[in-house]
Fold:
Amino acid sequence: MSARGFRRGARGSQPFFDPFLNPSTALPQTPMGSLTELAHLKCYPLENGMTWYHLPLEEAPRLAFSLAIPGGNAAEQFPGVADLTDNLLLKGTHRKNSEAVAIALDSLSLDLDISTRRDYSLMSGVMLEDDLEDSLALVAELFYEASFQEFELEKEKMMGEIQMELDSPRAAASDLYVKTLFAGTPYATTNSVVLQNLPQLTSVTWVQQHYTQHYRPERVVLVTAGPTPVTRLASLLERFFPPRKEPVISTPPATGQPLLAQTLQSLTVNQPSPLGLCRPDSNQAHIFKGWLSVAAVHEDYYPLAMMNTILGGAGLSARLFLELRDKRGLAYNVRSSLEAYCHRGMFSLYIGTDPARVRECLEGFEEECQKLIDILVDEQELADAKQNMLGRRAIFMETALQQAAYVANNLVLGRSIEAIQSAPDRFRAVTAQDLQRVAQTYLTQPAVVALVGPEGALQACNATVFNGP
Structure:
């Protein structure tokens, strides 16, 4: 089936996504383009109010698009509404049932993906030039005419899929970590929170209101990349995406964007916070440790991203991998990650280890972070990290769809076109002093530690965090 739904990796149980660092997508790819192509990206006005950017790629065989819909979990009136809304878009319209939608997608070779994230939802896909008009008509039908007839069925399926994912000890540890770090805010809406609340979501009205409120052309950001002439695309977009007739529903003050931004920006972790779930069936201890960090538009993002590359984001050459895995043999998988959202972000460490070696792992985390705080990074190591990061980004930007998704993700997070186009230069400009400054600023703050594993691992975690080495 060409359509895909229920993909929560971007903000649920695997907190390792950032569009600047990982501008990739799970959809089949059309090899085309590079970072240099972004210089040709332009914004074109549409009468329907849609924010539309087009990247001309004359040799691309298909048109790629990414439609970012601001809202996501941060705008929900009830946890899980955004996820359920997005899933149901592919389950039927007022003119087609779910089977007819699937047949239409396949007949057009229209690869379509819809995912829910903390600050927005993302609909992405690629379509054949010969079927462009029919494909855009179908996307518009999903955008405007979702029927939500399978509300109860899809809710039950979601609950089963979430439970199956949380059966993974690593996913459960990540879930516990994220909802604790962002406790009391919409960013804490993880898989377990959705699973807990879905049974209380008894009326489809919640979904219909979310859909009407956020799936509006004047609210969305559309990025297209491909060979289609701009004049033809503009005509088709105006034709198939008219203004919504339904009025905008007023947002209650408690969930408005200004208050949400204020709540997240003032959020703090007051003291070291070890948490654990006992899983006797787990033969490993899965540990997450992390700190609150900056929003996507913050200037500290660039040195934090470079620090992440050096510490654990560069794979085999990263410090955590070399020290904790290669030298000490503590784990098969160890890494760090940086995620930045509209109003806040998080810097995270992860390791999966033998339950008997939890203390060594936490001490290893502490030692490697302390080195960044106390010692300037060597210039050669910094240069290698920059080359690693920019090389990985170039690989992730080889296709039209990856470029469209990359731009849409960044625009909806608040980054400007200038910031998107100049990102490589901003990463190159990071100095060793910048790295030490952000390490001293963020890695010295209280952290959240979350572990899932057997009982002995939980005891070792608590003893290490509270009592020290």
